[in-house]
Here is the input.
Amino acid sequence: MKETALSATHKALGAKMVPFAGYNMPVSYEGVTAEHQTVRQGVGVFDVSHMGEFLIEGPHALELIQKVTSNDASKLEVGRAQYSCLPNEAGGIVDDLIVYRVKPETYLLVVNAANIDKDWEHISGYNAEFGAEMRNISEAYSLLAIQGPKAAEAMQALTSVDLKGIPFYHFVVGDFAGIPHVIISATGYTGSGGFEIYCKNEEVQQIWDRVMEAGAEFGIRPIGLAARDTLRLEMGYCLYGNDIDDTTSPLEAGLGWITKFSKDFVNHKDLAAQKETGVTQKLVGFELNERGIPRKDYTIVDAEGDAIGRVTSGTMSPSLGKGIGLGYVPVSHARPGTEIHIQIRNRNIPATVVKPPFYKG
Here is the structure.
C-alpha cells in the first residue's frame, strides 16, 4: 500500500484512512455531508496525490497525443488544459484524463490513479510509431485540489499570480506558498470553482501548511475522497470504473463533445460509424421521486418492471436532499422527464431522468 507525502498529516488530523487505487487515502475527516457543504459554500483542500502524471515531450509529442486521445490537442495553447479520453480499439475507454500544454513541445497528462500502469502501457504501445519522449513522474509529484467559491480569495495572499484572472481550464506556472515553480490550474472535480496545485513531493508539506494557515479565516477544512465523490456526482461528472470503462463508448457516455472526428485517433472510424448510426444506450442522470439511495449496480427497470439498465453511480445528494444517480438506459428511456424505476431492496422506486448537473449552484 503506497502512502502520499501527506499521509502522516492526514492521520494527525484524525482522517479515516482507506485503501484506494493502491494508496492509503483519507476518505473523510468530519463526515461527508459537512465536508461537502464546506466545498459548496466556502473552501476545502483535498490531497489527490494518488493521481498519475506523465510528461510527453519533443517534436513528436503532439502527434502521439493526437493519436491516443479523443479531443483535439492541436487547439491547446501553452497555459491551457483540456479534458479528453483514451479510446481503445474495441469501442471503449482506457481512461479519461486532462492534457496540459506546459511548453510548446511539452505536455502533461494527468490520469486516474488506478489506471497509471495500464495507461502508460497503452500510450507507449502507440509511441513506437512517433518516438516522443515519455516520462512517468507520478511518484515524484503531489497534487492538492483547493476547491470552493472562496478558494481564490483565500489563497491570493500565497501567490503573486492573479488567481481570479486564471480562466477555467487554464493554468499558470508560478510561485505559490513560498515555492517558486508550481502549476496553478483552474480545474477541479467539484463544480464549485477553485484550483489544483501540482508540486514535487518534497514541497507539498510546506504548501499544505501555508494553505491551511491562509484559509483559516475563510473556514478552510481538509476534505476526503467521500465528499469528492458526492461533489462530482452532483455535477454529473463521470468516474472511471463506474460510469465509463473499457466497454463503454464515449458517445454512449455523453462524451461526444470531447470526441473530435476532424483528426485520426485510436478507433475513430468505428466511433464515427457509431455516431452516424446512433447509439443504442445512453448514460443518463436521474433523481428519485421517493426516499431511497441508489447505489452502483442497482437494476433500472421500466414501468412494467422489466430490467432495462443499471446504475453506475448513486448517492444521497447533500445539496438537494434526495437520491441522485447516473446509469445506462436504452435510448428510448433517455429523454429528460422519462419515468424509470430503481430497484432498491426489492422495491421499484420511481425516478425521473434529468439532464445533469443536478446541482445548479
Notes: DSSP finds eight helices and 20 strands in the chain. The chain has a mean pLDDT of 97. The radius of gyration is 21 Å.
